Amino acid sequence: MTFDLARVLEERRGENFQLHMEYMNPQLARVLKTLGFDRFYERGEGAYLYDDRGDRYLDLLSGFGVFALGRSHPVIKKALHDAIDADLPNLVQIDCALLPGVLAEALVNRSHKGIERVFFCNSGAEAIEAAIKFARQSTHRSRILYCDHAYHGLTNGALSLNGGDDFRKGFGPLLPRTDRIPFGDIGALRRALAGRDVAAFVAEPIQGKGVYLAPEGYWAQAQALCREQGTLFVMDEVQTGLGRTGKFFCHEHWGLEPDIITVSKALSGGYIPVGAMLTSDKIFSSVYASMEKALKHSTTFGRNQLAMVAGLATLQTFDDEDIIDRARRTGEAFEKGLAPLLERHEVLHEVRGKGLMIGLVFGEPTSRGARLRWRAMESVRTALFSQTVVVPLFHRHRILTQVAADNVNIIKLLPPLICGQEEVDYFVDALDDVLTRAESGTGHLVEFGRTMAKGALRRTPGAAADAPVAVPAP
Ligand SMILES: Cc1ncc(COP(=O)(O)O)c(C=O)c1O
């Protein structure tokens, strides 16, 4: 019997959570069931997901930033069909194929003038691993600086640059000579660089875990300090790159010229994993220093033609559909739409970010009744409030969002860049409704508790609800 995808999908329909419980990560399945996020999504199109009940969900996570162009974009689909139908000679390896060269050229052309070469890999973490190796090789130094709250992926090198202890715990010893400094603190950076032994300062231009922005003027000073001390300035644009913040690279907002840039996520068109490290000829040549060293750093699937096609089709579509400016405009529409909610809801303290990377920051209200309710909730579990917003946004309004990091009352929105006013209005009204209910008494918490109890029953008939759980942040 030949493989028939339609038959597998039909015959195994709805078994997804059971299979994950049995063969994969049962804890993730349990968390999602408990919160009632256990759906069988059948289709994705644009900014929306559709489940087997025919319900439509507005996806404001976009696969953690992968679906810049939304799901199932017709241009990307056609490009990938064309690539398969063309029987491209993929992964010959002892070859210099055309399409990786074309994509490398396109990325170099969209970067500042100091970027001349590209190394392709398969993920954001792998791009960071490359950055660490190239920085050490080219500077002949070993120390790497990273920031509090940083997230650069979870492979060993990338994990060594993770600014949160929970991810690291139990996996040590991690890479030696990796040092954490406070984010946005120029004095701390100056002191850390003073010994002239730092190979690279690796940072996200806007931190994904919490949507933290550095103080005005910080980045220009940070770059200048790195240059003075012979340290490479590495901008991790895995999440912020490719239009997410209203510029092709986020660092363009401050006119920066990093020595190394990492990208991934959106370059995939949402289909084929890809990562890339962009840098200068000088840094590149320090690793590929001779013909004997032509493969000193490589990975089998790095120049996968399907990934290259997805990347090229994505970049072309960015231009054809004016995606970057749309992201900027829709970001402004979110800001405008959410502004009245800041006035109306005491718990909403701040809306921050750039373009379509948006952080909604919640905090203790000032009025007495609301403050007592807030404290009661937070005494059950730190940052429970944001979870009690994410859950009804999903259940009552069918909007997918996520808490930005563990133990913070911050919700992060990463909408597809193709979103427009319709999605902005829908989200703003939904958030207004959820926050109004949250402030109007205990009903909000009761509704959350009911969802949890139902989830516990779905997980194990007869079970009691657990202590509130959180959807783990990526
Ligand atoms: C800034 C940043 N760097 C690196 C990574 C790791 O990417 P990946 O999950 O593809 O390894 C992420 C993932 O979220 C990220 O946001």
> How helix-rich are the residues, as a percent range?
40-55%
Q: How many extended strands?
A: 17
Taking the alpha carbons of the first and last residues, their distance comes to 39 Å
Any idea how many domains? 2
CATH topology of the largest domain: Aspartate Aminotransferase, domain 2
Give me the side-by-side strand order of the main sheet.
4-12-11-10-7-5-6
* Biggest sheet features: 7 strands, mixed
CATH architecture of the largest domain: 3-Layer(aba) Sandwich
Overall description:
This protein is of the alpha/beta class and 474 residues long. The chain folds into 2 domains: 199 residues, Aspartate Aminotransferase, domain 1; 247 residues, Type I PLP-dependent aspartate aminotransferase-like (Major domain) (Aspartate Aminotransferase, domain 2). It is built from 18 helices and 17 strands. A hairpin with a 6-residue loop joins strand 16 and strand 17. The structure holds pyridoxal-5'-phosphate (PLP). The site of pyridoxal-5'-phosphate has 15 residues, from helix 7.
